[in-house]
Design a protein that fits this description.
homodimer; 119 residues; mainly beta; 1 helix; globular
Amino acid sequence: MIETVNIVEKFALIHEHWHPRVVGELNDAFVKLARLKGEFVWHHHEHEDEMFLVIKGRLLMRLREREVWVNEGEFIIIPRGVAHMPVAEDEVHVMLFEPKTTRNTGNVRDERTVDAEWL
Amino acid sequence: MIETVNIVEKFALIHEHWHPRVVGELNDAFVKLARLKGEFVWHHHEHEDEMFLVIKGRLLMRLREREVWVNEGEFIIIPRGVAHMPVAEDEVHVMLFEPKTTRNTGNVRDERTVDAEWL
């Protein structure tokens, strides 16, 4: 069944931070939505490029050599192998595009590691 | 170089309709922006699922058996093989996610066929 997905309505169903929920799949990729707040963990993805599209708020993306602000209506693509640490001083809503194989914490496995789960 | 992409700023650089421009790449996919106005052509993509995220306006997606409105802030994923015809009564701004191999007119090649081109 081909259906539209309303991003704002989906976010209303998400209550946790740092727990991306799958809202679509195409080809080998998942579309995910996540609420972020606070600091995440330094990690990289060995084989996957990852896109962060900021739906609401603004995201600070720390890279090893510098940091980049990603404002509402902007996206950033983190190439495979690049260490990054997303930081949300205030709550941020992001849409993620990444291969289905992507683990949220990349090369790290800790208490923030969660499996991809459909909303 | 890892940079943010501002969607509104990019749209200001696009002047044609039905001519998607590449604004990002990740894994095997391109992120594209397109201004749509009027009717496109019936087509399908043999091997590629395609995602339309409506940034501005509202898009009518005609399918063989029915039609679906995709409003601002909503997306729709058209699975491979499914015939579709996007229609924009008023101008619509969309973000597209599709494999790099995707031809805009799918199985059809006509005067509206354009190659993927970076903005």
